[in-house]
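Could you join me in thinking about how sequence relates to backbone shape in a protein? Label the sequence line and the structure token line clearly, so we can match residues to local backbone shapes. Once you have written the record down, we can walk along the chain together.
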Amino acid sequence: EGFWICETETTQRQYLEFAQRDGYFAMDEPAHSTSYIAAQDYLDALNAWGFLANGVGSGSEVEQKYEFRLPTSAEWEVAARAGTSTPFFFGANPERLARYGNCADKTFAAKHPECGHAISSDDGYEWVAPVRSFKPNDWALYDTAGNCAEWVSDWYVGRPNLEPTVDPTGPDFGDARLEKNAKRLKEVRGGHAVSRAAECRSA
């Protein structure tokens, strides 16, 4: 079935409307280092407040018809791939990632010489970049490759089910071999600012 998805990661500016926190905030950076529970609390608050995807409150002439939730891993992948079949939405060459996403790169390796997995091209950021700093995919979605890993609703398992499925929602629980309390283990997609390129793949 169809679904809506935000064009960028949730920014710290947006998150602050939900939770006032002490510390450093770069308002247009994604809300990184956020727990799965905190992400769910944020979505619950958006639904309770009646906010719409365009930021207009429930008093607008447009009625709220959709519930805010995390995408499934399958939905995230469909959105990130944007109709492509290559490892990255822009092709197969990881060195092109510097134009489309933020991963461990020349800038990061220069300040962290112990890093052995950086690409040789330069995205210009050592750490997290403001949203929309890189080119979007063909569906005008930003930062699906790197910058800040995104929570999805699926439990994480070491060996995903590769059988063809329509609208899969993932396993019913996590993999007990990976963590003692596997029911707390949730999946993230897309990689982040210090990830190796392979972790930023959309497929």
Q: What stands out?
A: The chain is about 20% helix and 5% strand. The two ends are 20 Å apart (CA to CA). The mean pLDDT is 79. Residues 36-49 form the longest helix (14 residues).
